[in-house]
Amino acid sequence: MTDRLDGPQDLRGGESAPGSSPDGPKTSEPDLATAGGADSAAAPTPHKARLGPSPWLAVWFLLPALILLGAMVIYPIIYSLIRSLFDATGENFVGVDNYATIFSDPSTLTTIRNNLIWVVVAPILVTTLGLIFAVLTERIKWATAFKLIVFMPMAVSLMASGVIFRMVYDQDPDKGVANAVLTTIRDTFSSNQGYPGARPRENDQSPVTQQQNGAVETKQTVQPGQPVAIPLVGIRPDQLPSDAAAAKAPQADGNALTGTVWLDFTPGGGGTTGQVDGQEKGLPGITVEAVQNGTVRGTTTTEADGSFTFTDLPAGQYTLRLPSSNFEEPFNGLTWLGPTLITPAIIGAFIWVWAGFAMVMIAAGLSAIPRDALEAARIDGATEWQVFRRITVPLLSPVLLVVFVTMIINTLKVFDLVFVIAPGSVQPQANVIALEMWRVAFGGGNNQGLGSALAIFLLVLVIPFMIMNIRRFRREQQ
């Protein structure tokens, strides 16, 4: 008996027909794919489970900060904007008149000019000085100590820094460090000693006379081999230099032209006018010129006893002249706190405070520069200046931009240094917008309408630089 399979048989031994199964009809493969696609399209896509707490919990934690931000920042800005549209009393609506006053009042225009000087000069100097310090400190062993010293002013408040520099810029060289340094340098390279107030006696018996330009000249011409006496008065004996010795009576010395310049005054009275007496002192350090036909033929300086000598003068008649520089006031430094130098002086204090911050920021960026790029440039024959200019500075440009923008914002807000350093008499010349805002609103002006307008104007100036910083932060996060 032969077994014959009439149709396909499954592996379990059961007989099945095409498209069917033992348990019922079976769908073909194309039908399964179609059915599966339809089911997938119809089924909703499951949402991913959020990790962590709900966002509303973060909102509750941020709510106290948002309330403080609104109370201390948002509300004052809105109130100042509204208040700037009213007059000093706050009762009468004046519109944009306060803003028009900002650009029409001469004192306010001075503050804007000063702020422009600040914005242009101070950030550039601070950034440049910080870059120089950061680059140079990489090459010294005591870089940490140097950075600490330069950064130390950041630990001092701006008010205290203003007090310090108010003393540094004092006019008296015995008190002000700046003028003490300048006078020391000037005295080191200048041999002349000033005798302000010195003059000839006002009578016909004096052998010398004072010209309109302040110089003292002999009335009669002299010639080599003839001693010349030049007596002066108008100086207190206690004001003479410490090296002044007893005056030496003028004596002839061969063919040399000699003479003596001395203080023709005997302490306690007595003595003979126009003659050197025993207790009279010479005037050292005075410049004496021998003039012939309007031309200076020789120049010399008096000794401690007031004597002087011209040794190589040709024969002829000469007029001896003491230039007016001998009688000028001694150099006592610059008037740092005067109307001319007050703004540069305060900018110098600002640089002293912020140079350390710039140096530390730039040094941090400098440490992140790949050294292989610098070494490759040196191997290729680049000089140190080329490496600095073409590699170091471009790689540091993001950090330099951060420092520069930060300094711009700080200069726009500067208040303490100007208020403390500038004396009251020159504050109008040193004024800036932040200080003018305080003076107008609270410092005696009692015009909070104009003060609020100045505050909004300052905010408008700061906002572009804040936006630049925010965009830079976003780019770094991306």
Automatic annotation (TrEMBL):
Residues 112-469 form the ABC transmembrane type-1 domain. It holds the Pfam family CarboxypepD_reg. Residues 1-46, 191-222 are annotated as: Disordered. Residues 33-46 have a biased composition (Low complexity). Residues 205-222 have a biased composition (Polar residues). Keywords: Cell membrane, Membrane, Transmembrane, Transmembrane helix, Transport. Its main location: membrane. Gene3D superfamilies: Immunoglobulins, MetI-like. One of its GO terms (biological process) is transmembrane transport. One of its GO terms (cellular component) is plasma membrane. The keyword Transport applies. Residues 1-13 have a biased composition (Basic and acidic residues). The keyword Cell membrane applies. InterPro entries: Ig-like_fold (IPR013783), MetI-like (IPR000515), MetI-like_sf (IPR035906), UgpAE/MalFG_permease (IPR050809). It is found in: Cell membrane. It comes from the Bacteria. It is a multi-pass membrane protein. The chain crosses the membrane at residues 57-78, 116-136, 148-169, 341-366, 387-409, 450-470. Belongs to the binding-protein-dependent transport system permease family. This is Alpha-glucoside transport system permease protein. It comes from Thermostaphylospora chromogena.
